[in-house]
Amino acid sequence: MKLHKLIATGLGTGYSPVAPGTAGAALGIVVFYFFNLGFTTLKINGLLILVLNLVVILTVMLLGIFSIKKVHQIWTHDVQLIVIDEVVGVWIAVFALPFQWQYYLAAFVLFRFFDILKPLYIRKLDNLKTDWSVMLDDVVAGVYANLVLQLVVFLKIF
User: Fold this and answer.
1) Tens of each residue's pLDDT in the chain, 158 residues
2) Rounded to an integer, what distance in angstroms lies between the CA atom of residue 91 and that of residue 54?
3) Is residue 133 within 8 Å of 143, Cβ to Cβ?
4) CA separation (Å) from 135 to 12, 47, 57, 140?
5) Nearest one of 57, 101, 74 to 5, comparing CA atoms
6) Do 31 and 37 form a contact (C-beta atoms < 8 A)?
């Protein structure tokens, strides 16, 4: 159970006394930035980076759902301690964007915006009250943030 708690709490960031979801998302964006910095430093091909990013996102998402299911045996549904969903959501928000800190910061801010306000069916997913819905509302928030940022990149706004 210790391992599942560690995963579900985003390496303990879910225990933050102030804004645990933001703490989890902050951990996620920093980890993903350095993960991709390593690929850039090693001069790994752009398509390979995308594939590796996708594999990591899907793996952590599935592992996170499994850990969420386990901790739900002892914790209430979607307790604030669970932040692995924020970690995955912010990774989706920054997926396939140019490797620049400005996009990572914008992805973090937009993801938290969508995650907190829960517009456009995100709240309906959140209200399903399943182990999967804990993760999926943040996945959709990440997709929305990513779509906005892909438009920013396409229009060359910054």
Assistant:
1) 899 999 999 999 999 999 999 999 999 999 999 999 999 889 888 899 999 999 999 999 999 999 999 999 999 988 999 999 999 999 999 999 999 999 999 999 999 999 999 998 999 998 998 999 999 999 999 999 999 999 999 999 87
2) 9
3) no
4) 17, 26, 12, 9
5) 74
6) no
What is the Cβ-side half-sphere exposure of residue 52, based on CA atoms within 13 angstroms?
A: 12
**Region of residue 156 (phi > 0: left; psi between -120 and 50: alpha; otherwise: beta):** left
CA atoms of 120 and 72, how far apart (whole Å): 27
- DSSP 8-state secondary structure symbol assigned to residue 18: S
Among candidate residues 71, 55, 89, the one with its CA nearest the CA of residue 6 = 71
Judge if pTM exceeds 0.85.
Answer: yes
Q: Which domain holds residue 51?
A: 2-154
Evaluate whether 142 touches 88 at the Cβ level (below 8 Å). Answer: yes
Report residue 87 as tokens.
Answer: 């970690």
- Tally the domains of the chain: 1
The amino acid at residue 24 is G
Beta-carbon neighbour count of residue 26 at 10 Å? 20
